[in-house]
Amino acid sequence: MILIIGAGGVGQSIAIRFHELGEAVGLLIRPYQDFAFPFPTWRNLEEVPLSRISIIFLAVRDGQILPLAHILSRQMQQGTLLVHTAGSVPIAVLESVVGRQAGVLYPLQSFTPGRSVQWGAFPIFWEGHPQVEAYAKRLAGTDHQVHHATSEQRLRLHIGAVFTANFTNALLHIADTLARPIGSWQTYLPLLQEVGQKLHMLSPQRAQTGPAKRGDYETLRMHTDYLRQHYPELAPLYEGLTHYILQHLSQSSCQ
Known about the structure:
N-(1-d-carboxylethyl)-l-norvaline Dehydrogenase, domain 2, 47% helix
């Protein structure tokens, strides 16, 4: 039986996926959480039939991984695999507790509770015990989206994921502020969708547009002057990103 600890977006998605694949799976949730899943859920570790568990996935906050590993190591059966799903936590954290029974399975995707994802459409990175690769392939439903990555490589991938997803959301929140009252973040959705479509065919460098790409310094000055006057906390962010584009993505840097 597979045990997932943590009922956030990642934990729910993994549990639902394994259940859909016909695996025996259970989910450990918090005492205050109330979910209706077609598989067992428990609110306390004491309720979990650990003697039947072959692998445990820790889909929890980074700081909870090591304390949970210590607790589980005293109760789980010998031979049970202990795997975390974090991008930035090295495998050594689990190896220090359970040795070779440790593993990492890191799905590089954005997970939100209640929202399904398309397994097999995004990469999964694994490390540690060889059986973790098999579980990753089972989740993905394909071999070509499953890759081995060291802890350092996974850290770099996770940082890149923050730039790609988390910072994009933050930038759209800023755009929402600037668009009001005549628009909102939704005003920019067609633009964002076009950018995404282009990136299926072009590199980020080739797909880049805008005043910094063109070297339109007068427009850049107008933008920064406006931000300094009305949104001073945004001016350094605008200037920093503009500097990066000028250095790496502008017409002069592409020559």
